[in-house]
Amino acid sequence: MAEERTYIMVKPDGVERGLVGEIIKRFESKGYKLVALQLLPTSRELLNEHYCDLKDKPFFPKLINYMLSGPVVGMVWEGKDIVKTGRRLLGETDPLKSAPGTIRGDYCIDVGKNLCHGSDSVESAQREISLWFPNGVLSWERHNVHKLIYE
Ligand code: IDP
Ligand code: MG
């Protein structure tokens, strides 16, 4: 069976604050495998598609402006139960409700500046990965490390 994948994105505030490395580090140290990584400016078209479920929310225009304020770092991580565990590594949507030790719990305060995105289901992950990485992601083996992480 193919390994589960998720789309993790460092939002413009995270990129500008120099937290890209820290966010990558959390996923790397946990034992997950990086299979795609890019720095790119977002566009209204991509964001409307990415956040299509939220288009009727009152905060939607503000969210789009926030996401357009600078480049983002998008990545795809792979591993066991990565979608759910990835969200736990990020913390709650509202940083003030996020436990210390999570990314949002450690590095931010307001919901409209919450540093990072993580797919909320396997289906959303597949949709977001094909949206942000239309040319696909890498399949590669960690020959030695894999057996030190998984039983
Ligand atoms: P998630 O990022 O934890 O999955 P969603 O509900 O999918 O949360 O919302 C997407 C993004 O929209 C959030 O990460 C946050 O940046 C922003 N957002 C969500 N709720 C609010 C709000 O009540 N006010 C302002 N921004 C919000
Ligand atoms: Mg979401």
Automatic annotation (TrEMBL):
It catalyses: a 2'-deoxyribonucleoside 5'-diphosphate + ATP = a 2'-deoxyribonucleoside 5'-triphosphate + ADP. GO terms for molecular function: ATP binding; nucleoside diphosphate kinase activity. One of its GO terms (biological process) is GTP biosynthetic process. The active site is at residue 117. ATP binds at residues 11, 59, 87, 93, 104, 114. Its EC number is 2.7.4.6. It comes from the Eukaryota. Its cofactor is Mg(2+). This is Nucleoside diphosphate kinase.
